[in-house]
Design brief:
Order of helices and strands: HHHEEHHHHHHHHHHHH
Shape: globular
Radius of gyration: 21 Å
Distance between the termini: 47 Å
Length: 430
């Protein structure tokens, strides 16, 4: 969110509280674009991510994954209204916002956030809050109780997502340091990826992993969801300019180039290692390219975006292989190597390719007083701080939920499949 970071908390805190006179400053073009972007980002979770994840699991668990993504959307939306939006963006301290805007208490039709209505800003931000815990679903797919998933996701949103969003975009300490995170490398991908790794380690592998093959049950569904994610990501990154301007246009271009380069690179890596490229590898590389460009999208140029996509394909591919084959960690749908590693990589690379001194690989330049070295230091601090905080809090929340109601289904329930024993329905009844 480049415009939010430029003004820190001032843009969010002061402009959100403006009254009727501020309505005169409304920019209808910017408002229309953010309204469109809001719909695109929600489209990423339902149906995009739901179909992508649903196709990747076994047929006996497809409905459970669809249900988890759908239910998370509902729970997060209510919690956002009740208080998490206020935690993220209301006036507070360097660590968390206060509760002055709980239940959207100060939101009126004429409330403004810059030159767009505050209601539009709040809804756009809500879609980010929805997709972040939904991404974590991929780590514990096929083995967590539905009730435990709901409780964990709700607590995680309050304890992790709300404060970290404030740190970066709501006037908190990382934003004040000058962290470059255009659309959620740390806020979304590092937090979700780190939480996914902790979940996979805490719950342990699925029964039969790694000896029993567990291929995707429906690659057509996977492709459909992946295509929706690619299109929706234009709203994710392009909308984060909070305006219909050149920043949004450049974000769209570098997002598309990174996704394309990530997909091609992943295919080449598979071709070299296994002799054939796979459809699954192509779409996974695309998502890796999208996640990696996210923090840098508004700061780098097209050639820089291309390099970021290539690096995403190489590094995320090898991390996926290492996690599953060498470390034998059952992050079921590769959330950590794709989103966690990709988000961290993109956040760090933003400090390099934002430079205006790299020829054709140049970006928009640094904020006043920043150099590549100083920006790199800030980016690394941002990755370590958000990752470390997320890991500790996620582990505590998992232990809490496990102690209260239990996390994992029984071995017999896992063998039967979550569709039947958690929802008493089948994904397929042919």
């Amino acid at each position: 969110m480049k415009r939010i970071q430029q003004f820190g908390g001032t843009l969010v805190l002061a402009l959100l509280s403006q009254g009727a006179l501020a309505q005169d400053s409304l920019n209808s073009g910017d408002t229309a674009w953010i309204l469109t972007s809001t719909a695109l980002v929600l489209f990423m979770t339902i149906p995009g991510l739901a179909l992508f994840y649903g196709g990747l699991v076994r047929s006996k668990n497809v409905l459970s994954v669809l249900m988890q993504c759908f239910a998370i959307t509902c729970v997060v939306s209510v919690l956002w209204l009740v208080g998490v939006y206020s935690m993220a963006f209301a006036e507070g301290n360097d660590l968390v916002g206060g509760m002055s805007n709980a239940f959207m208490a100060n939101l009126q039709e004429d409330s403004m956030a810059g030159d767009i209505p505050e209601s539009v800003f709040a809804m756009f931000q809500l879609t980010f809050a929805i997709i972040t815990p939904a991404l974590i679903v991929g780590a514990f797919a096929e083995r967590m109780r539905f009730s435990s998933m709901l409780l964990f996701s709700a607590l995680w949103l309050v304890v992790v997502y709300g404060p970290v969003t404030h740190w970066v975009w709501g006037g908190g300490w990382l934003g004040q340091m000058g962290l470059l995170d255009f659309a959620g490398g740390t806020v979304v991908h590092v937090t979700a990826g780190t939480a996914a790794l902790v979940c996979a380690l805490y719950l342990g592998p699925r029964r039969g992993f790694p000896k029993t093959p567990m291929p995707p049950h429906n690659m057509t569904m996977v492709f459909t969801g992946a295509a929706m994610l690619w299109v929706g990501w234009f709203g994710f990154n392009g909308g984060s300019a909070l305006a219909a301007n050149g920043d949004a246009g450049m974000a769209l271009m570098v997002t598309h180039m990174s996704a394309s380069a990530g997909a091609l690179t992943w295919m080449v890596c598979e071709w070299v290692k296994f002799g054939k490229p796979s459809a699954l590898g192509a779409v996974t590389g695309m998502v890796a390219g999208l996640g990696t460009i996210t923090p840098a999208a508004g700061f780098v140029g097209p050639a820089g975006g291309l390099v970021i996509g290539i690096l995403a394909g190489i590094i995320c591919f090898n991390m996926t292989m290492a996690l599953k084959q060498r470390l034998q960690i059952d992050d079921s749908l590769d959330v950590f190597p794709v989103h966690g590693v990709g988000g961290a990589l993109g956040t760090i690379l933003a400090a390099i390719f934002a430079s205006a001194s790299l020829g054709i690989f140049s970006g928009q330049g640094y904020n006043e007083g920043m150099t590549m070295i100083s920006q790199l230091q800030v980016q690394v601090i941002g990755v370590l701080a958000t990752g470390g905080y997320t890991a500790v809090c996620t582990l505590i929340l998992l232990k809490l939920v496990d102690g209260l109601i239990g996390l994992r289904v029984s071995p017999d329930e896992e063998t039967e499949g979550l569709d039947l024993n958690q929802h008493n329905e089948r994904g397929y009844d042919l």
